[in-house]
TrEMBL record:
This is Helix-turn-helix domain-containing protein. One of its GO terms (cellular component) is cytosol. It comes from Psychrobacter pacificensis. Residues 2-45 form the Transposase IS30-like HTH domain. GO terms for molecular function: transposase activity.
Length: 76
């Protein structure tokens, strides 16, 4: 099983479908993702104004940058 991060386009689709009051299960089927992936995305990346695609993408990118480890060339 391979894992891929949600793209900005997928986040905009989540935003649009959530705005139309669709269920997490329907959103997951449309995006061909697991319902738990959509649920985690909505929980982790919401703002004070609700889920926003651009804000969610920025938060996800910030988390990825914080987790990146840099190996100094001399040590490598």
């Amino acid at each position: 099983m391979s894992y891929t991060h949600l793209s900005l386009g997928e986040r905009y689709q989540i935003y649009a479908l959530k705005g139309e009051k669709h269920s997490i299960n329907l959103i997951a089927r449309v995006l061909n993702r697991s319902p738990s992936t959509i649920s985690r995305e909505l929980r982790r990346n919401k703002s004070l104004r609700g889920y926003r695609a651009k804000h969610a993408n920025n938060k996800a990118c910030d988390r990825r940058a914080n987790n990146a480890t840099t190996i100094v060339t001399d040590l490598w």
